[in-house]
Amino acid sequence: MRTLGMAVFKQQRVEDFYEIGEELGSGQFAIVKRCKEKSTGVDYAAKFIKKRLSRASRRGVRREEIEREVTILQRIQHPNIITLHDIYENRTDVVLILELVSGGELFDFLAQKESLSEEEATEFLKQILDGVQYLHSKHIAHFDLKPENIMLLNNKVPLPRIKLIDFGLAHKIEDEEFKNIFGTPEFVAPEIVNYEPLGLEADMWSIGVITYILLSGASPFLGESKQETLANISAMNYDFDEEFFGSTSELAKSFIKQLLVKDTRKRMTIQDALNHPWIKPENPRQALVRRQSVVNLENFRRLYARRRWKLSFRIVALCNHLTRMMRKSQPKQKARPLPGIVERTVAMFERDCESDQEEDGVFRKPRTRKRSSTS
C-alpha cells in the first residue's frame, strides 16, 4: 500500500470489496458509479479518476493533483461536505469511495418547488456558507463552487441537507503566493481571470454568483462566448435587471453586491457573509422583509434551463471548433500571440477542451475520424 500522510492508497482490486453499479455522472477525467460495500451492504459512490500515465500526455490527472484532493478530503469532516470513505489504486485509475449523495443538485430541487421565499432560500444558502466557513477555517479554498457542485444528501425531506462536492481544484492556502487559471469561467473571480494571487476570497465571489442565479435564474456574467464571459467578469459588467429582480429585497441585493467586489480586500469574508442581515436578520423588520420577498420561480426555471442548455451546447461547439482548428493548422505554423490577459486566460481554459478531445480520440476513434473528414 502507498501512503500519503494518513491517506492509504490500497493496491487491491476495488471490485473485490465493492459491487460496482450504474454510472451516476462523469467529468473530464472521472466517472462516478454507485457501489455497495460487500462487508457492510452500505451504498457509496465510487469516483474513478483516470491517472496521467506519462508527462508527455494530456490525458488524465497528474498524480500530485489526485494526492492533493485526497489529502484535503482526509482533513475535512463536516455535515455539509462530502465524506471520503476509502481509496484504491490500480495501474490506470485512483478510485475514491465517497459518501453517496443521491438527492440531486440543489437548483434542480428548487426548480420543482411551487413557491420560494427569500427566507427559505437563505436556509439553503446558510448551509453552503456553513460548509465554506469550515473549509476556510482550515485555510482550504474550494475554487470550484457552482450549482453543479452543490448537491442534496436526500431530496425527500422538506429541508434537505446540502453537500459540497468535487474537491479536485481545492487548495490549502499557504503563506507563499499562489496563482492559477482554473475553475468554471462563469463563476471564477477577477483575480483568476487576471492571473493575480489567489486566496479564500475567490470562493466568496463564487457564492455571490451562485446567489445571483438562485434569486433570478439569470447568470450575472455569462456571455455568448468564454471570452465575453471573462471580459464581463474583469470589467464587473453586471446589473440587477428589473425583469428578474423586481421582487427581490434590497437586503438580498446588498448581500450579492458585497460579494461581487473586485478588490479582494473589500469583498465580504465568510464570517461577514454569515453575519449579513439577509442571512442573520438584526431586527423583526429585516426578518419580515425576507419572509415576504419571493423568488420568481417561473423566471428561475426558464432562465436556469436556458443557461444549462447554452453551456452544454457551447462546450460541445467550442471543443469541436478547437479540434478542427488544430487539425487544419500546419505543423510549422506559429500561433499569433494573444494580446490581452483575458485572451490569455481564455487560451488556458480552452486547453481543457483540447484534452477532452484527445481523450475522445482514444475511446471514440471511428466517430472522430468521420468528423475530421468533413471539416
TrEMBL record:
<dbReference type="InterPro" id="IPR000719">
    <property type="entry name" value="Prot_kinase_dom"/>
</dbReference>
<keyword id="KW-0418">Kinase</keyword>
<dbReference type="GO" id="GO:0004674">
    <property type="term" value="F:protein serine/threonine kinase activity"/>
</dbReference>
<dbReference type="InterPro" id="IPR017441">
    <property type="entry name" value="Protein_kinase_ATP_BS"/>
</dbReference>
<keyword id="KW-0723">Serine/threonine-protein kinase</keyword>
<keyword id="KW-0547">Nucleotide-binding</keyword>
<dbReference type="GO" id="GO:0005737">
    <property type="term" value="C:cytoplasm"/>
</dbReference>
<dbReference type="GO" id="GO:0035556">
    <property type="term" value="P:intracellular signal transduction"/>
</dbReference>
<feature type="region of interest" description="Disordered">
    <location>
        <begin position="352"/>
        <end position="375"/>
    </location>
</feature>
<dbReference type="Pfam" id="PF00069">
    <property type="entry name" value="Pkinase"/>
</dbReference>
<keyword id="KW-0808">Transferase</keyword>
<protein>
    <recommendedName>
        <fullName>non-specific serine/threonine protein kinase</fullName>
        <ecNumber>2.7.11.1</ecNumber>
    </recommendedName>
</protein>
<dbReference type="GO" id="GO:0005634">
    <property type="term" value="C:nucleus"/>
</dbReference>
<keyword id="KW-0053">Apoptosis</keyword>
<feature type="domain" description="Protein kinase">
    <location>
        <begin position="18"/>
        <end position="279"/>
    </location>
</feature>
<keyword id="KW-0067">ATP-binding</keyword>
<dbReference type="InterPro" id="IPR008271">
    <property type="entry name" value="Ser/Thr_kinase_AS"/>
</dbReference>
<comment type="similarity">
    <text>Belongs to the protein kinase superfamily. CAMK Ser/Thr protein kinase family. DAP kinase subfamily.</text>
</comment>
<dbReference type="GO" id="GO:0043065">
    <property type="term" value="P:positive regulation of apoptotic process"/>
</dbReference>
<keyword id="KW-0597">Phosphoprotein</keyword>
<feature type="compositionally biased region" description="Basic residues">
    <location>
        <begin position="364"/>
        <end position="375"/>
    </location>
</feature>
<dbReference type="GO" id="GO:0005524">
    <property type="term" value="F:ATP binding"/>
</dbReference>
<feature type="binding site">
    <location>
        <position position="51"/>
    </location>
    <ligand>
        <name>ATP</name>
    </ligand>
</feature>
<dbReference type="GO" id="GO:0006915">
    <property type="term" value="P:apoptotic process"/>
</dbReference>
<dbReference type="InterPro" id="IPR011009">
    <property type="entry name" value="Kinase-like_dom_sf"/>
</dbReference>
